[in-house]
Structures are given as structure tokens and as C-alpha cells.
Amino acid sequence: MTSAPLAARLNIPSGPLFFPVTAYGPDGAVDLDVYRAHVRRGVEAGAAAVFACCGTGEFHALTPEEFQDCVRAAVEETAGRVPVIAGAGYGTALAVRYAKLAEEAGADGLLAMPPYLVVAGQEGLLRHYTELARATSLEVIVYQRDNAVFTPETVVSLARTEGIIGFKDGVGDLDLMQRIVSAVRAEVPGEFLYFNGLPTAELTGLAYRGIGITLYSSAVFCFAPELALAFHKALNSGDDTTANRLLDGFYRPFVELRAQGRGYAVSLVKAGVRLRGLDVGEVRPPLHEPSDDHIKQLAQLVERGEALLQEDK
In sequence order, what are the residues at sequence separation of 6 or more whose Cβ sits closer than 8 angstroms to the Cβ of residue 245? Predict the structure, then answer.
């Protein structure tokens, strides 16, 4: 765990936010050595933070013991250079358990994912995340997606809750997000962080920038950090020419390929890491591997993206 406040460290857009995949060996067990190498490469490439065992890291597929081992490995590999945020999810009791395991492993914060299965009302959601925030000393980012969608009034209450420092959007409703940002700005003093958490968030980066949201998760950084870094620099410097060239030539085609299979937001990314020379294994069920043709198309897309970067030189 690092000593500086998490919110302050995350609010400096020094690089993409890195969501490493979880590595498995040939026997299907977690391969901590390969996972460490993956995390280390990401930090050395310029990641601003490591979000361990979250969506891209197959949180859903990990046992509590595997989860804690991976979080601890990420903390050790980052060695305080960047913050480590761990996933937490399921029902309240299990989310609290994962939060405590992350705290014991030295994490700096939590990404609180939606509760399992149930579609809860706003009152129940608020209680769930409030109890999670109170369970440990770790600061919490609430992840809006799937069955956890919030009204502006509920987000105002979350922002007033001690220990909750940010809100990650995985829904993509810009009207709702603008109303959330406006309501919190008007009613809660101090700074509250917002993140674009859509799959391949770069595709909507320009739109989210328009409502003041520049922090985002980058799955592409897992397997093509040079492309993710170039886009991040362009987005934050206002170089829309470069951003649009990367959107048109790489990110839009990548998103269209990702849409060809369920679960490809994870399995296609993991295939990309393997293509770039690090054998992180396959995804665990119920996810499935991309087809050979889709992996071939991914390799061609990465080559095209690399060529786009050469145009700037």
C-alpha cells in the first residue's frame, strides 16, 4: 500500500489505467510468475495504476485465495510506483470478504463491482456500497453497469459517503452521466472522480471528455501499450487528429471484432497478450476462446495500429 491519497494519485492523467488479465498455466491454475511479468511490463510501459482482479482479470472466476495471491503479487511488483486497486463483488458479505483480503494483501483501493444476480432498488444499492466502504480502510470506486445503475440522487449520497472517492460508468448513457456529474458538483464539496468504464473505453473517450470525464480503463493497454499510450496522450493533449486516426484505423475495427463473440471483452484481450509473446493461458469457463480467424484478424489489427503510429514519425 502506498502512502499518498488514492484520489490524488489517480487524478493525475500520467498514463492509461491498466487492467491486467489473470494468467493461468497449462493445468488451469493461476500462474503467478507470468502474472507478475504481465503486471511488471504494464507498469514499466507507463500505466498510471493497476486494477488487479477486476473484469478483465476474471474476478468472477477466481477463488478468494487466488484473488488474494494475485492482488499481493500486483502490490509487490508495483512496489509503490503506482497504486493497486482490487476488485470486490458479489453480495455484501462476500464483497466485504474480498475487500478485507485485498486490504491484507496491501491494495490501495477497491473497484466495487455490481452485486451478484439481483436487480436491487436504489435504497438497497446505497446500503450495499455504504457497508462495503465501512468494512475496510480502503477507498472505493463504485462501478455502474449491468444490474447496478444509479440515479443522480443516489450518486450524490455515494459521494457523501466516507471512503467512496469515485464512480466508474460502464453503461454509456451520457445524458445520465451529465446529470450525475452536475448533481454531485452542485451538492457535494470537494473532488469526486469519474471514470469511463465501457469496454474499449477509447472509442467513447472524446464523448466522455466533453462532459469532463478523462479517466478511463484501457484493456488495449494489456496487449498493445504503445497504441494505448499514443491515444491517451492525444486525448489529454487535445490532439484530436491523432485520436481520430487511431479511432478510425484501430479502435473502431477492434470494437467491431470484439462484438463478434460474447465475452470477447476479456478473451480477445487475453488472446492479444498471447500474440504479443506472453503466454497468459486461456480464459476460464463460462468464457470461451476466440476463433482462430478472429485471432488472426486481431493480429492484423495490431499490425495496422503499429503502422498508424509510424505515420507520426
Answer: 308, 311
Whether the CB-CB separation of 202 and 218 falls below 8 Å is answered with yes
Amino acid 2: pLDDT? 45
* The one catalytic residue among 24, 168, 208, 270: 168
SS3 for 47? coil
Query: pLDDT digit string (tens) for 4-41?
Result: 589 888 987 789 999 999 999 999 999 999 999 999 99
Rounded to the nearest 10 degrees, what angle do helices 292-310 and 225-237 cross at?
50
Residue 195 · residue 17 · CB < 8 Å: yes
The values of phi and psi at residue 302, to 5°, are -65, -40
Residues 308 and 246: their CA atoms lie apart, in Å, by 7
Mean pLDDT, rounded, for 193-221: 96
Catalytic residue among 143, 194, 208, 216: 143
Q: Are 287 and 267 in contact (CB under 8 A)?
A: yes
Q: Label residue 313 by pLDDT band (50, 70, 90).
A: low
Average pLDDT over the chain, rounded to an integer: 95
305 touches 249 (CB < 8 A): yes
- Would you state the cell numbers that stand for residue 239, as one nine-digit string? 490532439
With beta carbons less than 8 A apart as the criterion, state whether 217 and 17 touch: yes
C-alpha cell at 7: 484520489
**Residue 168 known to be catalytic:** yes
CA angle 230, 205, 250 (to 5 degrees): 50
Could you please report the per-residue DSSP string of 283-308? PPTTS-PPPHHHHHHHHHHHHHHHHH
Q: How far apart, in whole angstroms, are the C-alpha atoms of residue 173 and residue 192?
A: 19
C-alpha to C-alpha distance for 185 and 91, rounded to whole angstroms: 30
